[in-house]
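Q: Could you fold this chain for me?
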Amino acid sequence: MKRFFSVSLLIIFIIVLPVYFIANNLWQLASQENFITGALDRSGIYQQATGLAVANLIPAEQLAELEKTGVISQKELEDMVNQLLPPDYLQTVIEDSLAEGYGLLNSEKNIEDLSLQIDLTNIKQQAPELFTAKVEEKFFQLPVCSQQELEDLEEQLSEGFNFPSCRPAEASSEELTGEIEKPIREITANFPDQLDVAKLITGEQKINIGDEDEQADEGEAEPAEKEPVNLAEINQNLEQIREVMAQVNFWLTFTFFSLILILLLIIFLNLRPIKSLLRWTGTSLLIPGVIILLATLSFTFYPVNQISEEIGRGDLPEEVGEIVVGIFQDLAKELISPLRTQALIIFLVGLILLVSSFFFKQDKKVPERKKKPAN
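A: Sure. Below is the predicted structure, expressed as structure tokens.
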């Protein structure tokens, strides 16, 4: 009976221990804000973000139409957006957002208690200036129009806007700057200097593009009112996420102490002789160590790249897919490296205990001596 219980406990221990170590390492990794920020930094996403945003967020038809006008090319637009949203600025915004998000999940705050603010003053100030400077540079490089070209230019502009092939001789920089900057400043004037994420979510702060009164005067249809944000539902979902996190922590802790208890029971059932104790304890650690080591080696040689390729590519644009693949591969490396070290320690301890058992002889039962009858 003792042997049956020992074998049963050993099988449970061998199965559960590798699963616990993999799950615990993965959870600890996902719970680390520093890992996420580091993975994003190493992926190069901040340096590529503006180009990806222009290429994938603006419809290709609109980009083609914009290039057709000759005002600005896609490459020039990417350079301009990169100056407005430099990599350091994007990195600061994203890292602050992650820090605030992790802080929110690990506290009892509601979504409206977020204290994240994004500075938009640079965008408001530089957007009109950058766009105007780019157009001016191209405009004043044009040759001066002849009388016939000037008449043709007026006719072209009446049919639809295209960047001219020549410029009027009397055109001044101040006049051109005013004409270009005015509509852009009207748009950016509706941007707040500080974007409060909590107020943006709750609807207390809005970003309006264009002048609503002007749109009404021109007879444009008023946009349909958006449904009010359901804060109660958002906070309820937030609370559910916290409950899931608490459950994961509970079960990981429960599994850890259960494994210790199982190992102690195996030791208790095989306390004597010492040879048996060393063999059972060594086997309990050696086999799970081998299993985890084999798992990490198999992930190293094949599935990491294969799985990340399948998950990361999908229907995503090529550049975005490469970034996602890089993040998944970084996650796998960060997971495998400490897991392999832990597995190696468990394996070596188990091996030492198992080898040590061979230096002890099996205790032999000493036969009882028969007492001689008294004379």
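A (continued): The longest helix spans residues 231-269.
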